[in-house]
Design goal:
mainly beta, globular, single chain, about 10% helix, 1 helix, two-stranded antiparallel ribbon, Porin, 12-stranded antiparallel barrel
C-alpha cells in the first residue's frame, strides 16, 4: 500500500493545525464543502479518468481571509494512479478593487507505480475583478518540480463569467501550459452552470487543447457534472 510522502504529511499537518486554530475563533470561522460526480475528471484542460466517470469531494475551513482545504477525486492516470488529492493552504485578501487568492498546494497521486515521482508542490496566485457584467479572473500556477519527468512548469489562465440569470452563469477560459520536460499546450473550455436548487448545481462544459498529438487525454470532450454544496 502506498503511503503519503513527508512533504504531504507536513502540509496536511499544517492544514489541520490551521483548521484547529480557526475553529477556536467560532465567531469568524466558516466551514464549507462539496461532493460531486462528473462524466470525466478534467484537470488543467486534460482528461484524467480515461474517459470514465469520476466522483470528487472538497472540504474547507476559513477565517479572516485564511483557509485550509482538501480535495480528492477518482482518476485513471498513465502512472497507475487511481486518485488525485490536493491539500491547500491559502489567503484571500482584497486590495485596489481586486480579490486575490494566494495559495500553496500539495498534489498527491495515490496508487501510482513505485518509483514514480507522483507528489509535488504548486504555488498559485489568482486576481479577480468584475468588469461591467463580466467577472474576470487571472490565474498563475507554478511548480518547481512537477509530476513524473516534468520539472519546472507554468499554467497561466484567463477566465470570464457572465450571469445569464439568477441561477445560470456562462463562462469560458483559455490557458497556456509551459513545462521543462513535460507537455506544452494551450487549453480552453466553455460552458454553462445552472443551480437546480440552492445547493445543487449542474455544469455542462466543452474542453479542448491544441495538444492532440500528445494523446487522447488532450482531445476535445464534453463533460457534465453535478455537485452538492454544504
Amino acid at each position: 500500500m502506498r503511503t503519503f510522502s513527508p512533504a504531504k504529511a507536513i502540509l496536511l499537518a499544517a492544514a489541520l493545525f490551521a483548521s484547529a486554530s480557526i475553529a477556536s475563533a467560532a465567531n469568524a470561522q466558516e466551514f464549507s464543502g462539496q461532493v460531486g460526480v462528473a462524466s470525466e475528471y478534467v484537470g488543467k484542460g486534460i482528461g484524467k479518468s480515461n474517459g470514465d466517470p469520476s466522483v470528487n469531494g472538497t472540504v474547507e475551513v476559513e477565517a479572516n481571509g485564511f483557509y485550509a482545504s482538501a480535495f480528492a477525486s477518482t482518476a485513471k492516470l498513465s502512472n497507475g494512479a487511481d486518485a488525485e488529492v490536493i491539500v491547500t493552504a491559502g489567503w484571500r485578501p482584497e486590495a485596489a478593487g481586486f480579490n486575490f487568492d494566494f495559495s500553496v498546494q500539495n498534489r498527491d497521486l495515490p496508487g501510482a507505480r513505485p518509483g514514480t515521482d507522483s507528489n509535488y508542490w504548486e504555488y498559485q496566485a489568482d486576481a479577480s475583478r468584475k468588469i461591467g457584467p463580466v467577472s474576470t479572473r487571472l490565474r498563475v500556477n507554478y511548480t518547481p518540480d512537477g509530476n513524473g519527468a516534468t520539472r519546472e512548469a507554468w499554467w497561466i489562465e484567463a477566465q470570464g463569467t457572465v450571469a445569464l440569470s439568477k441561477a445560470t452563469k456562462a463562462s469560458a477560459a483559455i490557458a497556456d501550459r509551459s513545462a521543462d520536460g513535460g507537455a506544452e499546450y494551450v487549453a480552453w473550455n466553455a460552458g454553462v452552470k445552472h443551480k437546480l436548487t440552492d445547493r445543487v448545481a449542474l455544469d455542462v462544459r466543452w474542453y479542448d487543447t491544441d495538444g492532440h498529438s500528445y494523446g487522447e487525454a488532450y482531445e476535445g470532450r464534453l463533460v457534465g457534472s453535478l455537485s452538492l454544496s454544504f
